[in-house]
Amino acid sequence: MSVEVKFRPITVDTFAKKKQNNEKITMLTAYDCSTAKYFDEAGIDSILVGDSVGMVVLGYESTTLVNMNDMKVFTAAVSRGAKRCLVVADMPFMSYHTTVAEAVKNAGELIKEGASAVKLEGANDYIIDVVKRCVESGIPVVGHLGFTPQYLNVLGGYKVQGKTADKTLFILNQAKKLEEAGAFAVVLEMVPEESAKYITENLNIPTIGIGAGRYTNGQVLVADDILGKFSDFKPKFARRYADLKSVIKNACESYINDVKSGKFPDESEIFHLDEQASAELKEQK
Ligand code: KIV
Residue 269, Cα to own-chain centre: how many angstroms? Predict the structure, then answer.
């Protein structure tokens, strides 16, 4: 099921201009149409349909179980709600690792669901080929370096990356390869602020940080973290702006109480037969 999406006014050029003008780029994840609509109306620059959907919506323990069908459904939902901001869809684990042709096909499917761009993790030679072929095929790409959740098992846990000068230079080198391959931005996750600053200053494309300090060109956070909806844990770098968990639980408890006590539904929430139909019904007895 594809959605036809009009060209959104915020584009890859907007990202480039914001870096040039030293204006911060704002990005949040979203996974459903109404949240995307509200973030869009609030003025966000970009929505990431993150594979974090696996953890915060689908209840998995990591992102690796998310598949293309999941990402297509959530990307289409967000795309229907986001009319102006740039929608980036995550390529899920194993959707771009087997062959370049398969990767480009899968990236194209997310664009057909309404994404403006795709994001993929890493920057080895094979990934760089995938990025090149996507861009050559008309698919804008965001890279993702530092802590890359799809490599959780290889990295041995949720660990800050780039903690030495050498490791910082390694990530910068990866970022430069992504830039040369045509990526228009790169997410830097869980790297020290000094490393992220150095990488940002030595790159032409914008960096979007998550747990990467204050000097990246933009910031991204997971919606369920800022809204206080996901409560299994709170990453150090996430800031909570609302407490949706309490809002949802309180609303549910009030509903249960009202149903049990007969307070719900009340006169304003019910339909009535007209007098004649009501009288006819009584005569049936
Ligand atoms: O899936 C996701 O939410 C992400 C962010 C952590 C950047 O990739």
Answer: 37
